[in-house]
């Protein structure tokens, strides 16, 4: 890549709107790239992580901030190098020398002790192979600096790195499992509708789905802002009168990133004949857009060529979830252990839920050690629920993709090689850990949410039906649900999707001026809530621009949207109390809109009696 092309890519990633970077800023960025041998994309990932950690706006690339960023990279690399030496010294265990891995492995040898045997468990002496950090973070495995930057988040298994609502005391785990399940599950989404035939709709039917979404928001905006129907109009029609136009954000090019010059508003056939009109946002103090976003804009099209935006109207949010006093009383009684509980007047023990996301094994093996460690932890503290999002058997795993792997020898006697399928792999490699957990904690509830990267699921598109549990050998406590799914755990409304929409929103969004929400992760999550959808981005990001996978050319399957059934990806009736969205972006847990807690990756949530109080840690 030539110097001109690199500078152009730097301006695309780090620039704000149409404003190019200053020469000093470009020089500093090029210096960091050469020093750490980073591509522009890798550098931007690190810059975003730094901005999130320091709570600063990623779009403001000031020279002084860049120099602090450069020093932080140097300090992180130096700190991790010292930590590596210390851990190796403390172990003092010699092992058989082996050739270093070229990429994607445990380069620094810091992940050897992923699990710690619990009480009564025998400890294995044999060395354990652990997930490559590039796999954990869903990023390319070619950069050793990137691996070093992620060591802090992966080296110390079980370490608490963040607590939400840390003013609340952490409850002690029970000394024995509860006699019966303390969770009542109620599905808000209609799971039967997810069993549609994928990729079977006509283009005309898909376009009607997209049109209906715009028209639905017209009614919502009209009611929320108490506007007359005459206040709405077509942004594509020339007029000197100010109108409210509702439509979908689009780009005038199928290639490249959305920018102020390529910004279009797509109207519905009912409101504007399905026409697209350029947007002039020069009068706005700040804006935040992404392709597929439904917006309500107040402005005028005086020349017939572009719609000049004067104001962006707020979209109404879904109402908060609420429970009747009788329902709350029943949930509290269930938490106490049922109507026959000995101490029916005392405060019940808080509900304890563990969330985790796949993949659950390393790139170079199918041992599923992280899953075993997770199940051991859930058994030790007697959690009420374990929520696992896929992929479980990842189609992008190098061994799965090549088919070059063997099942453990102890299972070979009971398996017919001629009839073995991926269900067999799941049954003998994943189900045993879940069965041991269910035996140690009979009252647990286990939820499995598939991913479009799951080789086990024949439903290849999103929204995605649950994979059949027949022949998987799952315990009765395990339930397989759809992707996405809105459901209630007692009085808590939980929204879950295994699709990595946050990374794609971050990649595709356009920020100008002073946006309403300057912080990246909070802004990406707010998009989901405001758009009332688990994947509001349309069209999805090009697969080649997504984080690299561990096999072949590194290009994953992408979002795999079935446009005709996108309505099944909408949030149902109310805002979730907890929104769980796994992503390759840095994990976090935050309060949004008072009651919404957003979290992703390996996150454990502990909820007390009411939705107004809760403690999360990861």
Percent range of helical residues: 25-40%
Shape: globular
For this structure, the quaternary state is: single chain
The main sheet comes to: 7 strands, mixed
How many strands appear in the DSSP assignment? 20
Number of helices: 16
Q: Can you give the mean pLDDT?
A: 80
Structural class given helices, strands, pairing?
alpha/beta
The CATH architecture of the largest domain would be: 4-Layer Sandwich
Given as residue ranges, the uncertain stretches (5+ residues, pLDDT < 50) are 84-155, 601-613
CATH level 1 class label of the largest domain: Alpha Beta
Number of domains: 3
* Spatial extent as radius of gyration: 25 Å
Intertermini distance: 40 Å
Which fold name fills CATH's third level, the topology of the largest domain?
Purple Acid Phosphatase, chain A, domain 2
Query: Proportion of β residues?
Result: 15-25%
Strand order of the largest sheet: 1-20-19-9-10-11-12
InterPro entries: DNA_pol_a/d/e_bsu, DNA_pol_alpha_bsu, OB_DPOA2
Protein name: DNA polymerase alpha subunit B
GO biological process, one term: DNA replication initiation
Subcellular location: Nucleus
